Structure prediction request, 323 residues.
Amino acid sequence: MLKTYLHVSAKQVVQCVLPDRFPAGKSGGQEPHRVPPGLNVTRTPLCYLNLESNSFGHQLGPLLIQRLLGDDSSRLVLQNVRGKEQRRGPCLFGVGTILADARPRDAVWGSGLSHSPPAPGPWGGHTSSNETRGKRAAPRPKIYALRGPKTHDLLVQAGQPNHTVVYGDPLMLVARLFPEYVSPEAARTRDACFLLHPRYNRVHGAFLKYSKWVMYATMGYDVVIPFLLGCRLVVSSSLSGIVVAEAYGIPTRWLHMTQAHSSTQLAAQSVFKFCDYYAATGRGCEDRATSPDKAVAMGGKAPIQGYDYETLLKSFPYALYTA
Prediction:
């Protein structure tokens, strides 16, 4: 079994357990985020994904929303979309490929789909015959932002009106909302680091010469982020790893080894997510690396140019939390 940088095996994963209080953000040389006054953070639950082998991105998503809301005492109500608890009322969907679980009247800010359209149910609205009869449209989830245009295309196929949408993964804002992790470029002492899903143990032989600089994406966010910030190049099979590293200005390379996936369907879902994100940031997704050696040789992908981070930030649905 492949050992990681911290000598933790792939089976030793970290579940999404939020702290009672998260550390307050320090300036880190960036303009601090200003939270609107008078918010009621308990007004709308946050739908998120909490699995036994959660990625650090799924851990970080709820914390990012808490920072946006100024919720430093963890009063935000969390709803696991794959949990056994009964959902009560509308929910906000944020980080993750969880949009297929959305229901009518839910709100969506930056979520995405996998490689196939969702069930038409919450997205189809009314039919043309209903329109002619003057009937009110069935409620749909309200979209504030989507992870990318490929997710948007799938929603349109399912019946969602083709309106202009803000694109971006919420984790693109992590450096703005977690400035305490910002570090100087001189602190990047490792030439290349690898952030992998545990399934890459299927191809562990390819990483033997890099094993000292490998970490699993199922480690805690407070372990993964400092690890990434010590690297001059981040090679990742995890989309969250790519998004977070790029947010902190670290060159990245997407690693996709088909043989690491248990099925062609899962491999296709992984490709879709990355292509969705890259399209949102004005880049293509054809230049993925298919081995660790190729990833190191290719170096970093062209950085994001001209993306309007402020528009993504301003699209956050604060109205859901207005008392």
About this structure: The first strand starts at residue 46 and ends at 48. The mean pLDDT is 84. The chain is about 25% helix and 10% strand. The longest helix spans residues 264-280.
